[in-house]
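Suppose a colleague, Dr. K., hands you the sequence of a protein chain of 194 amino acids and asks what its three-dimensional shape might be. Before reaching for any lab equipment, you can write down a predicted structure in token form. Begin with the sequence itself:
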Amino acid sequence: MQKDTLKFYTMHLTTLCNTALDNPTQRDKGQIIAAGLKFLETDTICYRVEEPPGLVELQKNEWDPVLDWIEKRYNVLIGSSSNIMGPQIPKETKDTFHQHLRSYNFWALTGLEFIITQLKSLVLSFGLVDRHLTVEQAVLLSRLEEEYQIQRWGNVEWAHDYDMYELRSRTAAGALFVHLSSESSTVKHKLLQD
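The predicted structure, expressed as tokens, is then:
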């Protein structure tokens, strides 16, 4: 659909393919996993505000069910905190997520890291890849405070809307890339008989 000039920054799947093929930073699986796990220490949905009361309640109502889901799904403890230091993530939780991430191939990890950096959340990324959350839900949950402020103070259409749609686009591309890179497929050959 692009006519005269190719805008590579809008071609997220192409960018992910090129990144996985070229590996410009020369990282291995272990380094990508370590980078993804680092987000757990500063995960968006683990940091809570103490005020205003409306946002406190919104975070509790929207983020707690996702935390409950991931803790049950992976049999881990994460928790949340309103302290600037964040919650203390147990070593067992990190080990469990490390083991889970090792099950992905290099290409899928490239896509998963892309999602994690978009959402600023390992938890939301796992929710999306595990199909517990839709792209729209994951993006909305990652932008919860911003959406709260928009409802309170109003929307700057050309700025807020564009940011949201672009984030959805990048997140959807990353999720699709993970799923396509993780699929195992077999080709059945039809035997022709004379």
